[in-house]
Specification:
2 copies of one chain form a homodimer. By secondary structure, chain A is an alpha+beta fold. The first copy, chain A, is about 30% helix and about 25% strand. Chain A has 2 domains: about 160 residues, Nucleoside Triphosphate Pyrophosphohydrolase; about 70 residues, Winged helix-like DNA-binding domain superfamily/Winged helix DNA-binding domain (Arc Repressor Mutant, subunit A), CATH 1.10.10. Chain A starts with 11 loop residues before the first strand and ends in an 8-residue tail after the last helix. Chain B binds a DNA duplex through helix 6.
Chain lengths: ~250, ~250
DNA sequence: TTGGATAGTGTAAATTTGACACAAAGCTAT
DNA sequence: ATAGCTTTGTGTCAAATTTACACTATCCAA
């Protein structure tokens, strides 16, 4: 929309949009950043929707997804991965959907294919008021989401599955944590993504054997219990590891 | 195209196409069904391309992919899975590409997003002359493909990766084999998908432990060596297995 | 000082993986 | 018919990995 002035010369493609499943982690559970479409839209259906927009004709899909993310959160340089394309011809059923689409300049009658992405953002970096859109945006724990506008619930499901599968192959979970984190937080993160409990000792053993964490001398402060050591993700060691064709972070 | 008369009332969407990576297995190696675009197109670039087409406004993406497959091979009810969406604005560079696009009724100047699928077909079921298109179609071993038209080489790469990854999680390889097959054929199939040698005895041990194969009393006939026992994929046992949340066919 | 909360640690049994070689069965050519 | 070629089919042992499981240490707050 008007946010990104650079794009104003190019035309919106009325047939293709991107939607972003923006994952965060509040140190307790996996959350998703949703847009509240407001009272009016809610008259006929779920208020909450994934952030998304039509694409411009001069940008590629990844760029469009990054733009949507940037417009909403002000973040860039973020882990981002395509989930896939969605596009039943009858995606849009309701009058309220049409109103909403008009408000984001989409053509309500057009058949729209949407390309879904998921992104992993460290919640600590997110400034809620980075853009005017963000006023209507909220983090919602994934487990509490029971319905979404359009086909967004289906997209969310696919994104969760993809993330679950991906984390077994690459240690991308770090993108959801602050730079310094504890093993317990990482543990909890894996549990909430994989949606199953993991034995504490076995988890720690396995993650440490990978040797992609740097333990800092620093400890947690101000917690009402034994403070944990803090760790950092070690990018270089990870690169070494993957360059040997390693692809099994098997959980 | 004109092949499928049912669709003639609906309009083609000029912005969205599907491309299919149709995998086969000739009992030696993994192959892909490619279209030869002919001499004229080849003047400026690779002749070979993935089969694909624009979508109609009244069909969903999976339907479109199935249609492309059906038009080319006459096959339906085939294992099919989305790879993802591809769509750089500058996908189409060459004059020859434009000519080709016109010939399939696409708008050469339009910005086209393509949604890629891969499908697994049992080569034994494929009748090469099922459609007029098939005259220009040929099975090509994946290892011999060095370039393709448009961005199709990139798409092929993504499809191979997806297949490789998927086969570690679900035993979809059976879709590439005839109903009755030998363990050696299955072994060879896994090797060619994973692109690495697998120890014969270890492979057989692992695959048998899954207990999703039914051994038939029948033997191979007419081979110039000790004949192998024939096996069938056992759908029911597989269903039992997956319904317990099993997702590791770990190779 | 005590109580509450979470951090951090080791071991033993079971399972899985990886490496490795030779006899059996059928076909072909003589 | 026989010898030779080709591929099938099979077992074991060592190493690595996985699973299950419980108690002490450290900090904060009351």
């Amino acid at each position: 929309m008007q946010h990104n002035q650079k794009k104003i010369n190019s035309e919106l493609n009325p047939n293709v949009s991107v939607d972003c499943v923006i994952f965060g982690f509040d140190l307790e559970q996996l959350t998703v950043l949703l847009i509240d479409r407001g009272e009016i839209s809610s008259a006929f259906g779920p208020r909450m929707a994934l952030p998304g927009n039509l694409i411009y004709d001069n940008e590629n899909l990844d760029m469009a997804a990054n733009r949507v993310l940037d417009e909403l959160t002000g973040l860039n340089n973020i882990y981002l991965e395509q989930v896939g394309a969605f596009g039943d011809p009858d995606r849009i059923h309701k009058e309220s959907d049409r109103e909403w689409l008009k408000s984001i300049r989409a053509e309500p009658e057009a058949r729209v294919i949407t390309v879904a992405y998921f992104t992993l953002v460290p919640m600590s970096n997110y400034k809620p008021q980075a853009s005017s859109f963000a006023k209507n945006a909220d983090w919602v724990p994934v487990n509490e989401i029971k319905e979404l506008a359009f086909d967004h619930f289906e997209i969310l499901q696919a994104a969760k599955d993809k993330l679950k599968q991906k984390i077994k192959i690459q240690p991308i979970g770090f993108n959801l944590l602050p730079e310094k984190f504890t093993l317990s937080q990482l543990h909890r993160l894996y549990e909430s993504i994989l949606d199953k409990p993991l034995d504490k000792r076995n988890f720690r053993r396995k993650i440490q054997k990978l040797d992609i964490l740097s333990s800092l001398r620093e400890k947690q402060r101000g917690v009402p219990h034994k403070p944990s050591l803090l760790y950092e993700f070690n990018e270089e060691k990870y690169q070494e590891l993957t360059q040997t064709g390693f692809d099994n972070f098997g959980f």
